């Protein structure tokens, strides 16, 4: 936890000089031991930063939190829970054909193609004006308004990470010739 605080603190970055100052310029009267200080790591633990004494973490914690050690857990950024939804493509069908997502909830939307032919996902309205990240072995196509469509190869998988910015019902389809595949994503 202390290392996470050290690495996640935007207010002040610590240089090697700061670390060595904290580590080596402690008052000679300061006595630290794992028995007396529950924040202290055992003496036989390999140091994370070479040259630091094993029991320096309480002092680094105070430096990083401006002396407010009791508030340290609140100083950590909260982890954002990602909503994960997988849509299977099988037999020229999106399964399930109706998906519910949540407004302003970070989402990982996956499409897995189990067919032996190419498929595409076209959902322009859902992704309009939204920052997103497309990964996997599909071929995304972008236009002036953002993501136009993603072509998914046989046995392929694509993942679109985004945060739905608008509520509503958004239809999507496969626009490959001869494919009549349609489905709906509802954002509430």
Detailed description of the structure:
It is a single chain. This protein is an alpha+beta fold. It folds into 2 domains: 74 residues, no CATH class; 105 residues, Immunoglobulin-like (Sandwich). It has 5 helices and 11 strands, in the order H-H-H-H-E-E-E-E-E-H-E-E-E-E-E-E. The strands form 3 sheets. Strands 2-1-4-9-6 form a 5-stranded mixed beta sheet, with no helix packed on it. A 3-stranded mixed beta sheet has the order 3-11-10. A 3-stranded antiparallel beta sheet has the order 5-8-7, with no helix packed on it. Helix 1 runs parallel beside helix 3. The longest helix has 9 residues. It is globular, with a radius of gyration of 26 Å.
Sheet of most strands: 5 strands, mixed
Overall mean confidence score, pLDDT? 75
Structural class: alpha+beta
Label the CATH architecture of the largest domain.
Sandwich
- The N- and C-terminal alpha carbons lie at a distance of 35 Å
Shape field = globular
- Strand content bin: 25-35%
What is the CATH topology assignment of the largest domain? Immunoglobulin-like
User: SSE order, as H and E?
Assistant: HHHHEEEEEHEEEEEE
Low-confidence stretches: 1-39
Q: Give the strand tally.
A: 11
Helix content: 10-25%
What would you give as the CATH superfamily of the largest domain? Cupredoxins -  blue copper proteins
Cα gyration radius (Å): 26 Å
Strand order across the largest sheet: 2-1-4-9-6
- Separate helix tally: 5
| Tally of structural domains | 2
What's the CATH class of the largest domain, please?
A: Mainly Beta
Chain oligomer state:
single chain
